[in-house]
Amino acid sequence: MAVLETPGAAGEPEIEVQIRGLMLDPVTNMPIVVLKEVGSDVVLPIWVGVFEANAIALELEKTETPRPMTHDLLRNLAKGLNATVRKVVVSDLRADTFFASIWMEQGGETVVIDARPSDAIALALRWDCPIYVSSKVMRHTRQNNAETAANVGADDLKRWLENLNEDDTGQYKM
User: Which one of 15, 72, 84, 136 has the largest count of C-beta atoms within 10 Å of its C-beta?
Assistant: First the structure.
């Protein structure tokens, strides 16, 4: 488990994750970003909007666009203001909604900005900075996955998420 030494805003340790895949939910046809804990098989699925998934997919595939997309604009704006994005953190889960923060540094000061996880992830990809999930969110997710798995039966959901392969994720194609 890769845990950031410095706790997040809530004092909780942060667990480093990587994007495991970007896929469509087979039931709802909504995009899912699947985050995987570094050094572990623990996964965190986050349902996102179609436009945000497209922004993530474009960067994962290193696709050039003729004009800056919104997340490219945000990167360019931060660079123009001499700021650097240091990390993004999926920091909370309330009423089935994930919350995130973007940690930036400007002029020697840390600035933390509230964001949707999909936007934070899209920006993190453009800055090539680490993505973290608070340990509180991971604990809550593990608990919910266990409850859902009990309802689905025989840990089918957990196995499905943990055994994703490149064909399942479509190699980031939407």
Answer: 15
pLDDT in tens, 27-82: 889 999 999 999 988 899 999 999 999 999 999 999 999 999 999 999 999 999 99
Instruction: Give dist(CA 121, CA 1) in Å, integer.
Output: 20
The answer to whether 109 and 82 are in contact (CB under 8 A) is no
Could you tell me the pTM of the whole model?
0.79
* Superfamily the domain 3-163 falls into: Bifunctional nuclease domain (3.10.690.10)
Residue ranges of domains in the chain: 3-163
Report helix angle 70-80 to 50-60, nearest 10: 70
